[in-house]
Request: fold
Amino acid sequence: MPEDPDDRRPEDELREMLQRFLSGEGPIDAARLAGAAGMPADPAQLQALMAQLQAALARTEDGVDWSAAARQAHAVVQRDPGSVTSAERDAVRQSAELAAMWLDEIVPWGGPSEVALRSRQQWVDATLPVWQEMAEPVATSIAGALTRAMQEHAPEEAQEMLAGAERILRNVGGTMFAMQLGNVVGQLAGETVAGGDFGFPLLDDEATLLPVNLRTLAEGLEIPEDQVRIWAAARELAHARLFHHARWLRLHVLSSVREYAEGIRIDVARLEELAEGFDPSNPEELREALSSGALIPPKTEEQREALARLETTIALIEGWVDATTEAATARLPRRDAIAETVRRRRATGGPAEKAFSTLVGLEIRPRRLREAAAFWRAVAVAVGPEARDSLWDQPDLMPGAADIDDPSAVIARLQGGEELDEMDLALQALLDDAARESAPGPEGAAAPEAGAPETAGESAGDDHDGDEHGGDEGGDDEARPQQ
Reply:
């Protein structure tokens, strides 16, 4: 018995209508819709776009379908996957081995000593989960706002059809955003040279280079390619070792990104304007709004504060990596030329970086990189690299934005000359009382009680892996220059 049209649910009617449009039976121009999503309008891409949107209509789950991002990123990479000869890969491995030896002389920490060589496709697969994590709050906000705007401004005859179709609308909007993100990440795979290029911890406890992009970088620098390979490997290993040592740092950075992204809201008034005048046959205005970031309103005060904290953290990470790489590659004749060229390249950013910034509302280029590198150099000159690097031991030791401008307070703290606050004074008084009570009497020194805590001098070797450095207790204090 055929189904009575009056018995169908409104969301079924909407699904059927959209499916007709996406199959070419309606006024939606597939090429223009691809343009609205920021994707090329070649036949293969158009077919993929329509297939992804039809799959979104059929989904029973709610939320963003991130597999659409992966498929789109793969499609972008396949247009130019790049190729590397076995000789090139061997040359990069040899350069990485030499860079690791040089870095061992500068950085006492353990950590990655080998560099993984990835293709563009492998880089996409390895890093896409982090890009998704950064973009998810914005994707959810855009999909929800688009759904509300369509429901509020649809003609009266369509209201009943849209009333129960929130999930369908969210799925379609989320899929469009996911495909845009995949398009950007696929483009980034053609620009990035190493896993740490963007400051964000895209890879967990791993150093990675993309030989195909490294070759392109070397060709543009007009510098011997072996020097470029060694420098790039040293920088990537320094980045990986920092995150290996400071285990708390990766979660700290990603949480800061999430804190900022969750505060992003969509300009509903602008979206309502688009919904009121939206022409399915000409979605150019929607494409412009999505690609220019016009739907993301100016930052709130809370967002500005969260972004300032995040930028300071990224600057400190990148500044330390640059200062460490500079010291490790001192033997390279063209070291400074390589560093300056790469610094300028990263400061301007490529097209894909700019696309990610407008899509998510978050720039991935580090600010104040030169100032942060100068900060780490100044602290190393004053107290030595080992004392300087102790600032990464725990989050509450991290310098702030004001310290980058004037490192004197940090240097004083590391030298032990920082003025104590009331809590520090009270704690110091308790320690002094305990020391007097345990001091040896006139009859000779008192034996320490069993289980008593070690003094700072006794534990210094353990705190800094004394066995690894010869087992000399207190070695950290002896290695520190006297001021």
